[in-house]
Each structure stands twice: as structure tokens, then as C-alpha cells.
Task: inverse folding
């Protein structure tokens, strides 16, 4: 079970250009993060706190394969995303960065500011403000292991170290 | 045994399995990994360094610079410099520097064959599906994982069949088919399953038009957009110096199970335009007729291949771009520019007033030259019109075919291209 975080709620089809605008892609990640989601909510980037939870509608993360779309969220302190559905490449990217992305039909029930915690292994999301629990797709073991390791790089590091130790 | 779809056959082969079922997580051997300057060496180098790992097989890696091309400042120049040095250090022979957009250059240089399992470090990687490959986009960390291990995982997708039949009318193209489908199925409507395009319309399309269908499978939310190989595919691959492989084997079985089948009557389609800020916000061009455009853009992997330029030229021949707008033309590759120069297309376009831009991703993703000011409106042959993608947050992008972009450039507002062609607008 994760720590509790405050929900920031967005609509359908939040795209990677909104998350990581192309105009700032060649610059440093910190600059890109300042512009994260500014086209939909200019208050988000300046105010989001460590541990806050992003809640979206359908197709969260549609668009480009740029993983900076996940990286800026992580830099801003977000470790958990809940949405009705995620775009495929974005979903892979979140797990690769050790960020939990949970697809949940009840995501729409979450209101801005609700206190949310999650259990990715069991596929449960708890809304402490509303006193509700929602079911979501659990992450399969092999992917959960990678997320717990902190992402794909950390996961590979561990695996390569194990391989070296066995040689 | 039950029949398999083309996607299932390719995944099974890559996973070393007899067969795979939709929903199964499998680890696959990667036949080819393609990356560009934005998501490529610049991003994977620090990961490989951290892991102390080498590229598993340099011969199976293709690097293409297209995003920060040509560099316009010290930051973009440094990204290209890093890319070039990394490629040399890692003995990547397949390096195409400033030769055009990766999705177009990859097949143009003969890298794709039917049945291949290919990862691309870009979201429009489904373009490769037009060659009967299972090609999908990944982020840079996923790519680094592939470079280290030669493998990646997939959750085996189901396949949605899109069966397109009938003759396209004058001034109607693959772009209009896919914009129509975006409106019908919705952006992301395929939910990371596969689409496979079939039918006599598809069979009659040249490879570049098939690539437009596969390319924008990304906008449908598909992991891959497949078209089974045929004689047209083999002829293209052979001309590109590639290996045409075994097209007869890489076909969906007649008794394969599809998630759904959508049918499209190509003959009934008119030119389509997608209004801001979604490709799914599409309708016949009539609905947006008269919208004033400050810029018309023919570019990108989606809309600046040789046939795209031919379409634009057929409208612009002997006509002029309105002095109320500007037409930017960025051919998708240097080979396309050369071919268009050789066959007179380039002269037709520039005489009409088109402004020639470098071959690269350019304005499409807001990386390169040609971006929009606040409140400006653009009609574009590209794939995406998300808010702010092509420049200022308040700018607006309409998507259309190269025919429609060209016609709108002449009129200075969104126009049905059939007004300039010998077709009926009825």
C-alpha cells in the first residue's frame, strides 16, 4: 500500500505535448517540468507536492514516445497515476521510471484534492476523502518487480549484478 | 490449431513460441531497433554508461537524425554532435544523418522486411507496419533495455481489422481515410491493440500511402498498424535494396480471430479535415470550409512523402499560393527532394510559391523552423494537432491531406481540393 497523496484531476486525452511541450524538449528537465500541463492547468506545476497523485480520464499520455512526459511528473514529485485508461507507450514509460500507473474504471469518482492511496499488487485504490475503494487492473508480477526496483534501469542493474555474481 | 493474425505470428516467432494468445505477456527477441536524435543516443548513452553495458548487436541498430535537424542553436547542435560520436563509438554502421525523417528513411534504405519484430524510439513507429513488420514505439529507457539485452516484453495485443474497399475519388487519399477513422474510432480508441488494414483499396495503394495509414494507427491508439506484404511491398523493398523476405508466410490466417472488423467504403469518402485540437475531431472538409489559414504546412513522416508532394503539385500546378498565407514544404527525406526535383514536382511547387524547408520533423512537433505565433491558424499534412504542439498555446492546427493543404494555400482558407481538380465536390 502506498502513502496517501492529494489528487490532481484531469480530463480525457491528456497528451504528451501537454505534459512535456516540444518547445522545451532540448533544454534541461527542470525547465520542461515548469511547463508540465500548463496548457490545461497553469497552477499544476508551481503547486504540485511530493507524493501527489495524478488522476486522468481516457487515454492519459497519448501522443509522443518521449519519456520526459513521465520524467517531469516524477521530478515534480508524482509517483502514482490513476486513469480510466493509459496510452500504451506512456504506460510502458511510467513503469520504466518506477512510477505506478493504474487503469481504473472508477477514476472519474475521484475529486480534486481527494486523499488517495494505492495497492498495485492487489489492484486497489483507496479514496480516503470519499471513504471509497475502487478496483483497478493489478500490475503483473514481472512488471511490479521492476517498479519496486525503481524502474527498468535499476531492474537491469540488479539483474546484471546477479549475472556477474553467478559468473 | 486455431488460425493466427499476422501480429500474433510475428510475436510468436520473436518469442520463440509456437503460438501466442492475446493478453499473454511474452519476452521477444528484437530484429531491429531504430532511434532518432531526440530519444536516441542523447538519452540511452547515460543509461548504458550507468549499466556499464554495450550494444547487444550494432548491426541491428539504426540511428537517424531528424528532430533537431538542422541544428538552430548550441543546444541542438550539441545533441547532434553527441549522436554522431556515440554512433562511431558504438560501431553503428546504419547511421543516416540529416537524410530525412526516421519512419520514411528506414524503409527507404531497405531496413524493413515482412515478419520482423522492430522497436522504434518514436511514437509514429507503427509506420513500419505498412511493410508487414510488427513495429511499435517505445521510450528511451525501453530502448536502452533493448540495446543492452536485445529483448523486450509485450502484452500480446489482439487485432482489430479495418477492411477498406472501393476506389478513392479524385482528390481523396489515405490521409482522408485515416482522418475519417480517427473520427469514427476515436483517438486512442484501439486501446493499444493492433490494427490490420485489409481490402482492395489498400491493395491498390502505393507503399507511401499505405505508410500514411500505418503511421496514424498511432493516433488510433494502436500499438502497431499492420498491412500484410504483397507484390507492391516486395517491389518497394527490392528497389530499396532490402530483403523482400517471405510475404506469403507473413499473412493473417483466414480463420484468425479479430477483436472487431470495421469496414470503410472508400468510394463514399470525401476529403477530411480534423479541427483543433484532436485528430479525432474530423469531418468532411465542407464543415470547415472558409476557415482562414495563416500557414499551410506540407511536412512530416505522415504527409511529405513523394506521393504527398505529387498530390500537392497536382493542385498547385499553374496556380499561386495566396498572398494572405504561406506554404511551407519540408519533404520527408533528401531522397524525396531529389526525386521531386528530378520529376519536376519541386519546380511546380516552388513556382506556386512553396517555401522549401529542411527534411526533418520540423514544425510538426514544434522542434524546428516554421512554428506558429499566438492565435495563428495552420492547415497541415501532419498527424497531430494537439494544443500548442506546433507553437504558441493559442495557435490552432487543422489536419488535412496534401491535396487539401495545397488547395487551402491557394485560397488562403480551408478549401475542398476538388475545386481545383477534375473531380466532383457533390
Result:
Amino acid at each position: 500500500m502506498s502513502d496517501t497523496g492529494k489528487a490532481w484531476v484531469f480530463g480525457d486525452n491528456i497528451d504528451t505535448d501537454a505534459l512535456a511541450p516540444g518547445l522545451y524538449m532540448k533544454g534541461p528537465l527542470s525547465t520542461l517540468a515548469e511547463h508540465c500541463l500548463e496548457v490545461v492547468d497553469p497552477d499544476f506545476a508551481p503547486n504540485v507536492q511530493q507524493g501527489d497523485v495524478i488522476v486522468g480520464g481516457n487515454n492519459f499520455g497519448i501522443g509522443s514516445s518521449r519519456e520526459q512526459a513521465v520524467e517531469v511528473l516524477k521530478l515534480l514529485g508524482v509517483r502514482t497515476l490513476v486513469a480510466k485508461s493509459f496510452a500504451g507507450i506512456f504506460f510502458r514509460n511510467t513503469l520504466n521510471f518506477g512510477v505506478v500507473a493504474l487503469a481504473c474504471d472508477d477514476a472519474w469518482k475521484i475529486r480534486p484534492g481527494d486523499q488517495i492511496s494505492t495497492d498495485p499488487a492487489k489492484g486497489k485504490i483507496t479514496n480516503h476523502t470519499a471513504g471509497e475503494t475502487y478496483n483497478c487492473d493489478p500490475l503483473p508480477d514481472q512488471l511490479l518487480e521492476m517498479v519496486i526496483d525503481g524502474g527498468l534501469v535499476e531492474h537491469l542493474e540488479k539483474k546484471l549484478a546477479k549475472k556477474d555474481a553467478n559468473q | 490449431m486455431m488460425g493466427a493474425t499476422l501480429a500474433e505470428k510475428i510475436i510468436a516467432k520473436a518469442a520463440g513460441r509456437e503460438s501466442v494468445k492475446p493478453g499473454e505477456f511474452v519476452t521477444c527477441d528484437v530484429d531491429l531497433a531504430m532511434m532518432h536524435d531526440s530519444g536516441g543516443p542523447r538519452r540511452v548513452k547515460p543509461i548504458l554508461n550507468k549499466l556499464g553495458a554495450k550494444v547487444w548487436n550494432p548491426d541491428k541498430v539504426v540511428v537517424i537524425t531528424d528532430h533537431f535537424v538542422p541544428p538552430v542553436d548550441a543546444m541542438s547542435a550539441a545533441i547532434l554532435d553527441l549522436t554522431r560520436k556515440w554512433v562511431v563509438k558504438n560501431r553503428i554502421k546504419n547511421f543516416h544523418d540529416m537524410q530525412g525523417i526516421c519512419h520514411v528513411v528506414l524503409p527507404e534504405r531497405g531496413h524493413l522486411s515482412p515478419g520482423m519484430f522492430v522497436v522504434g524510439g518514436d511514437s509514429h513507429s507503427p509506420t513500419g507496419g505498412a511493410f508487414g513488420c510488427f513495429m511499435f514505439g517505445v521510450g528511451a529507457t525501453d530502448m536502452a533495455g533493448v540495446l543492452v539485452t536485445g529483448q523486450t516484453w509485450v502484452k500480446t495485443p489482439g487485432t482489430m481489422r479495418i477492411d477498406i474497399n472501393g476506389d478513392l475519388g479524385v482528390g481523396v487519399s489515405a490521409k482522408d481515410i485515416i482522418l475519417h477513422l480517427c473520427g469514427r474510432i476515436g483517438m486512442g480508441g484501439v486501446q493499444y491493440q493492433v490494427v490490420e488494414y485489409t481490402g482492395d483499396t489498400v491493395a491498390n495503394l502505393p507503399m507511401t500511402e499505405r505508410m500514411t495509414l500505418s503511421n496514424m494507427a498511432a493516433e488510433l491508439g494502436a500499438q502497431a498498424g499492420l498491412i500484410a506484404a504483397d507484390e507492391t511491398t516486395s517491389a518497394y523493398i527490392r528497389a530499396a535494396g532490402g530483403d523482400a523476405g517471405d510475404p506469403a508466410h507473413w499473412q493473417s490466417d483466414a480463420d484468425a480471430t479479430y477483436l472487431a472488423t470495421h469496414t470503410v467504403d472508400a468510394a463514399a469518402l470525401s476529403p477530411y479535415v480534423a479541427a483543433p485540437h484532436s485528430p479525432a475531431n474530423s469531418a468532411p472538409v465542407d464543415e470547415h470550409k472558409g476557415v482562414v489559414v495563416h500557414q499551410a504546412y506540407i511536412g512530416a513522416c505522415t504527409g511529405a512523402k513523394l506521393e504527398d508532394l505529387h498530390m500537392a503539385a497536382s493542385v498547385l500546378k499553374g496556380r499561386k499560393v495566396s498572398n494572405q498565407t504561406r506554404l511551407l514544404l519540408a519533404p520527408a527525406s533528401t531522397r524525396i527532394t531529389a526525386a521531386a526535383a528530378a520529376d519536376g514536382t519541386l519546380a511546380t511547387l516552388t513556382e506556386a510559391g512553396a517555401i522549401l524547408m529542411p527534411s526533418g520533423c520540423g514544425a510538426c512537433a514544434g522542434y524546428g523552423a516554421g512554428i506558429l505565433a499566438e492565435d495563428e491558424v495552420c492547415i497541415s499534412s501532419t498527424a497531430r494537432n494537439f494544443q500548442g504542439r506546433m507553437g504558441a498555446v493559442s495557435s490552432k492546427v487543422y489536419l488535412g491531406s496534401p491535396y487539401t493543404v495545397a488547395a487551402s494555400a491557394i485560397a488562403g482558407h480551408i478549401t475542398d481540393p476538388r475545386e481545383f481538380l477534375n473531380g466532383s465536390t457533390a
Notes: Chain A has seven helices and seven strands.
